[in-house]
Amino acid sequence: MLFDADGLLQHPKAGWVERLNAYDPGDGTGFLTALWEAEVPALRGQETLRQGLQRLLRERDLDDGRVDELHALWDNIEIDPGAWQVVRDVRAAGTPTYLATNQQEYRKQLMLDLGYADLVDVAFFSCDLGAAKPEPAYFERILQRLGIGSSEAPRVVFLDDMPANVDSAASVGITALHHDPNTGAANLRALLRTVGVPGA
Description:
By secondary structure, this protein is α/β, with parallel strands linked by helices. 48% of the residues lie in helices and 12% in strands. The protein has helices spanning 16-21, 31-43, 49-59, 67-71, 81-92, 105-114, 116-119, 126-129, 136-146, 163-171, 184-194; strands at 2-3, 10-12, 77-79, 98-101, 122-125, 157-160, 175-178.
């Protein structure tokens, strides 16, 4: 059982969207889009988040002194107790549970400090795998690490709130389900029941 994190097991802290939007100069230069793009190499473990942000600021001739405040935007995790209980119930029923999430090293450490290492059997972070969702390689590397061949992939269930990630997992044979983050833990249980996951 593979669980995504953001949109399922955790959500942004209250006020985070307002904090983020405060950095949009509103001049049509696409700063927020560039901000997310600057994170991508860090998600693959190719550099740190700080290095990506420093590069973004240099490219836009902005003050390097903003790195710390931009970096702090990623400290925005609020766990969902109900969703965590779903994971615990599934694991207690005997199903191996894994985290399958796109994160750079900084956010990975924040999540481990919150207790994810104890929540699941193994946490698969994109920065450790060298690939990020929705790249099929991300899922292929997880299957390899689990020792699961392509013929057995359908017995692996994956939940994510991003359709592109769901489609990518399905493309390598995984049973992939889309979760609407607005529907909460009850929907997580309902989705898992549709494919017969014990403990849901």
